[in-house]
Amino acid sequence: xxxxxxxxxxxxxxxxxxxxxxxxxxxxxxxxxxxxxxxxxxxxxxxxxxxxxxxxxxxxxxxxxxxxxxxxxxxxxxxxxxxxxxxxxxxxxxxxxxxxxxxxxxxxxxxxxxxxxxxxxxxxxxxxxxxxxxxxxxxxxxxxxxxxxxxxxxxxxxxxxxxxxxxxxxxxxxxxxxxxxxxxxxxxxxxxxxxxxxxxxxxxxxxxxxxxxxxx
Length: 216
Description:
By secondary structure, the protein is an all-beta fold. The chain has no helices and 12 strands. The protein has strands at 18-25, 31-39, 47-53, 57-59, 63-72, 82-92, 117-122, 128-134, 144-154, 160-170, 175-178, 195-198. It has a 5-stranded mixed beta sheet, with no helix packed on it. The protein has a 3-stranded antiparallel beta sheet with strand order 3-5-8, with no helix packed on it. It has a two-stranded antiparallel sheet with strand order 1-2.
């Protein structure tokens, strides 16, 4: 209705790199307009993005601050650039390097819903974007979680530059491990069930209270 149209051309992988022109003609071959474009094997980033986090790991209820700094490749800060930062959490299996035969899988079968937290905005005059995220305080006794922060800053043409930061979130200070080597045991004979308690680094702890329950 507006007298407009669109079309697309798929370039083969063998296309020669260089400058191409798209030209628009009338029905009687009168050139209306043209536009040039560069075809390259890759497009270098126009901006450089570095992302730092305030802590190497988190505990339930703690806050993590993410700071992204964007600069143009020719020097000055990339000010007023759109950005998007996504915060994710997912379950991660915990193991102790010195105790590979122990299982530390948490018995808490409560289902937790890990929802993405997405923030959007624009960088300030110094090309900086800062957002704070928190691990929910009700995430307790479900082992260790793997967190990731996916940061995207868009250059002046709208092309994204992505960075990812990963961290661990610990929902408990003590991790209990069980070692059961045999699937079948004889009746009326004692069964040895080794139990161990370690910290987040897999170091054995002393004087830790525990309750062991055997369910038939």
